[in-house]
Amino acid sequence: MSSRHDHCCVPLCKNDSRYKKNLSFHSFPKDGDRRQQWVNAIGRYPGPDFKISQCTKVCSVHFNAHDIKKSLGGRRLLRDGAIPQYFKWTQDKTERNSKPPKVRHIDREVSMNGDSNSKSSEDVSVMAPYPDHDYMCKETNVLSVEQQLNAALERIAKLERENHRLKSLQFTVNRFTNDPDMMAFYTGFQSYELFHSTFLSLEPTSSRLITYSQLLKQKPGSTHEMSYFIKTETLCPIDQFFLFLCRCKCGLFEKDLAVRFNISVSTVSRIIITWVNYLYHILGAQSIWPTREQINQSMPDCFKESYPNTRVILNCTELKCQTPSSVYLNSQRYSHYKSHTTFKGLIGITPSGAVSFVSQLYSGSISDVDITAQCGIITLIESNDDVMADKGFTIHDLLSKKGATLNIPPFLTENRSQFTKKEVVETQSIARVRIHVERAIRRVKEFHIFDSVIPLSLAGTINQIWTVCALLTNFRGPLF
């Protein structure tokens, strides 16, 4: 048998199941409207001193007799729609069986006519508090409607300020609109204005992006139009662009980005794949190979003096990648220069320092000559152009077919063990201007996604990431 005892919660009612075995006790209805009708009927409203729960009961004394029915098991239940109606404050005094509350008399001394000896006794009746319903004796400050309205307006204003403060702390691009240093740290753009103007130039097409997952779900031959990506994602387009740049520039893990942007890891992955392919096609479609006239207009003085016909400066760089389990792939990607498996790419810059050519990534074992022959840059070279490169680019025969010349530092052979004075001067002269391609490559390597060993899971998108990061360095302005 349960040891729980029920107690009636109606004011001025002291019925308890321990002493009133013939009464039944009923819980408040679960329906909100009916529960409110009960609350209004008994005149006891929820607050700090009264909470309605499953254990809050009203005894059968307060209901009509026809509102109570017996179940087959003998339990006394309420009929649907029953509402408590009978209370002590609604009954006539002659019908009350309970004893009247105790009254205590207080003698109050009152001075009359200034005579301190004259005293008048006044009996003041004070109702003793009911021990079971002591909340009835508490003083309550009843506010006017206007006061309640003003309090509600103050509460709303406070919540709006708190909401604005919390929104300002969210990890979105709006948080860094007035902080150029943090914008450069997270995105590589030197200011929010440059970042925003770049996004606005992408917006006409970015508003119609389709996710990678939507493409996979599209059935072959289906003519059904897919819903647009931007309308189905949690983040707005500009924050998706910001998320992608945070991944590349800072090298943040996808799980870290999921926590920062309050989205799932799978959503982060889909956004990155979608945006890297989108930017690869949009930026890759722009012509970055300048004409001869544009080269001459921006030619620095250091080139004008010694190498005025220079069209492009070439160099290769390598990105360490995870070692594949296949022996054949391992041998193809192994670089003796890095003593590790790598991806290798070629970058060309103009004399002013702008990236004018980015090759795709190749296996780390490929030579500088082979990558130059395969990447397609030779088709862009014109007659009378000068190409500057490191001494590993022995591509004289490739350039001679185009009527171009090659400027590389001299190098020693088996028959020569020492440079001549002229060769030393030439080496220093070329190195002094060729160093700028190293600075351009360093800008690409400042995208910290390339800091760690690239996992094989990124093999499908690393070529796009490499190209996009290289092209985004042009938004930082010239090297000089």
Mean of pLDDT: 84
What's the Cα radius of gyration?
42 Å
Structural class: alpha+beta
Proportion of beta-strand residues = 5-15%
Element string (H = helix, E = strand): EHEEEEEHHHHHHHHHHEHEEEEHEHEHH
Question: Terminal Cα separation, in Å?
Answer: 90 Å
Total beta strand runs:
13
Shape: elongated
Biggest sheet character: 7 strands, mixed
How much helix is in the residues? 25-40%
The residue ranges in which pLDDT falls below 50 over 5 or more consecutive positions are: 105-131, 227-232
Number of helices: 16
Describe the model:
- This protein is of the alpha+beta class and 480 residues long.
- The chain has 16 helices and 13 strands.
- The longest helix has 25 residues, at 421-445.
Briefly, what is this?
The chain has 480 residues and is of the alpha+beta class. It contains 16 helices and 13 strands.
